[in-house]
Amino acid sequence: METFLSIIIIIASILLIFVVFIQNPKGGGLSSDFGAASQIGGVQKTNDFIDKATWSLAGTIAVLSIILTIKMKSIEKVVEAPVEATTEQPVTQGTQGE
């Protein structure tokens, strides 16, 4: 399960990088490549899609990262418990070294 979540986070991160590269910080971006402003809703729909894709991917990465962290901490507690119990030295009575 942890491997699957990690792969999804990596894929979402790569897609987010591509979506951010498509955007233009001055408002042009991919939508300016589609021609004249006379297109019926084409430019606005592209901007809306890119905006929604950016926020969706960022939200997906954040939520899955939190879920993965919680899962890994619970696994870590299960793994550490037996290790701590076996590292304790037994208490012996009597004198040592005689």
Q: Which features does this protein show?
A:
98 residues, 2 helices, 67% helix, mainly alpha
What's this, in brief?
With 98 residues, the chain is an all-alpha fold. It is 67% helix and 0% strand.
How are the SSEs ordered, and which strands pair?
Elements: H1 2-22, H2 42-86
Helix pairs in contact: 1-2
- How do the SSEs run, as a string of H and E? HH
Helical fraction equals: 55-70%
Mean pLDDT: 77
What's the oligomerization state? single chain
Strand content: under 5%
What is the molecular shape? rod-shaped
Largest sheet: none
Structural class: mainly alpha
E-strand count: 0
Q: Supply Rg.
A: 27 Å
- Compute the number of helices: 2
Distance from first to last alpha carbon: 55 Å
| Uncertain residue ranges | none
What does this structure look like?
By secondary structure, the protein is mainly α. It has a domain at 1-23 and 45-72. It has two helices and no strands. It has helices at residues 2-22, 42-86. It is rod-shaped, with a radius of gyration of 27 Å. The model has no long low-confidence stretch (mean pLDDT 77).
